[in-house]
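Request: Have a read of the protein record below and say how the chain folds.
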Amino acid sequence: MSKRVPVNSKKRTITAAASSTQEPAGSVTAASDPAREAHQTASLDPAALQAAIASLSARIERLESALASRQPAASNLEAEKYWVLHRLQQGEESRERKGEIVYAGVATLPTGEQYLWQRHGSVAALLKSEWSGFDAVIAALGHPVRLRLLKLILGGKSSKAELEAAAEVGTSGQLYHHLKILQDAGWVRSLERGQYGVPGERVVPLLAILLAAAG
């Protein structure tokens, strides 16, 4: 005796089999895009990356060069302005000596004479030295008549008669008094035939003191 299978049962079996072959709910299958795959492959190529980096580096370098030509770096300008200080700060010897004081100059006088001078000393040595020995040298400059005499001598008026007429010091005795103080301090030297001059090794130091006094 044969057994009949219900129609509804067969339909359910087919439906179940069909549903087992479908994609799960919510899943998406990406379609293959040859153009996109080719782009991804090209973007990962080492040669292409290196070329892109080189191009960007060249553009940055051009921009930096253009900016530098328009606006010089402030640090470079400061280094040019204060080159003596930069040299002193970088020197190992200067650090060991607790710093250094330097003055120098190239001075061309109205007479045509030119003097070049440079002097430096350690701060440690200056602070340890006895300063009272400098008083006569400094005090000799502490009078307006003596400063006027020094300026006249540097300007070319070297004879006693010229100095007496131009300095307006009064009597010959007063002129001699001021010149004697300048001589004893080393700021003036008596030359031949009643002429006076500032020693060459004192020209730049004298001008440096005046510059320091001017602030």
User: Anything to note?
Assistant: The domain at 86-213 is CATH 1.10.10.10 (Arc Repressor Mutant, subunit A). The two ends are 133 Å apart (CA to CA). The beta strands are 100-108, 114-122, 189-190, 196-197.
